[in-house]
Design brief:
- This protein has about 350 residues and is α/β, with parallel strands linked by helices.
- About 35% of the residues lie in helices and about 25% in strands.
- It contains 12 helices and 17 strands.
- The strands form 4 sheets. Strands 7, 9, 10, 11, 12, 13 and 15 form a 7-stranded mixed β-sheet that branches. Strands 3-2-1-4-5-6 form a 6-stranded parallel β-sheet, sandwiched between helices.
- Helix 4 links the parallel strand 4 and strand 5.
- Helix 4 runs parallel beside helix 5.
- The mean pLDDT is about 95.
- Bound molecules: L-homoserine (HSE).
Length: about 350
Amino acid sequence: MKIAIMGHGVVGSGTAEVFLKNKKNIEAGINAGAEVDLKYVLDVRGAESFPGCEYADKFVKDFDLVLNDPEITVVAELIGGIEPAYTFVKALLAAGKSVVTSNKELVAKKGAELLKIARENNAAFLFEASVGGGIPIIRPLYQCLSADSINEIAGILNGTTNFILTKMFRDNMGFDEALKLAQENGYAERDPSDDVNGIDALRKICILASIIFGKRVNPDNSMVLTEGITKLTREDIAFCEKRGGTAKLIARAVKNGDRVEVSVCPTFVSRDSQLAGVNDVYNAILVRGDATGDVVFYGKGAGKYPTASAVVNDIANALKKSNEASTLYWSEEEQELCQPAVAEICGNIRVFEGL
Ligand code: HSE
């Protein structure tokens, strides 16, 4: 069983490392006698850009090699962005190869279409690493909580901004210094404005909302409220503290009749909330089910190895060729949205009921 990795950046190199290190565990998890291996690492920069790389012999630059190799059954897309990732993933799924990805933008914008192509070609399209880094959240949503009707999901979905807020308001660090540190740690996007403006968290909440509501929740819908952390001041934090809580960049999707409210913005979080003590690069996702009540998923939301761990787990699941992924699906029909019901606004902070 041969796999390929496309993109050798922070997550791609982490995935290769974790996959090669844990090959034996992956083989044991598939079935006795299975042998898995990494055959290609596709990256336009070539092995020469990664001196000392232990798997330099696997580097290729031609996508068609991966696409047309019948030995390759699972491909990890870790290039990021829409193109060429979208064209590559579409071609691979159409050829019956399973694809796993950490690409939030691709899944949020093209997920419905890619899931459909995967279904039609008996392939899996898995993206656990696209939300919450190393936290299992996608699989629990479509597999473990399917008995519940979920009406609300809210969380800290961007590690970079949570890290910056923690460094600025707990450790008195400046914004630029905190962002630089987040970049050095491999948390931030290639364009960090996607992090600090709330776009990355928006893509992630749209993915989760699409899973739980079954229709495409479009991040470009005009009803979506998106605000990042760049305007937050000490006065905003003081307001939250005085009120008995703290400020977090919260991404939220709530059912409102047949419509859904979607927001990403600096939000008051009560001290009693399980989201209040989530600091540094950690993410937490609160899921409100009608039967199970509140469930919170917590862990490292960004970084090379936590994200690689989720990718490799998806690779192992895709290699198993179980049909468990067939319930991971949402339709291409767009979910109708409405404006988020904000209880109160103070400075740059919004207060929502129940947080
Ligand atoms: N830039 C993202 C974050 C990476 O900081 O959360 C993980 O998706």
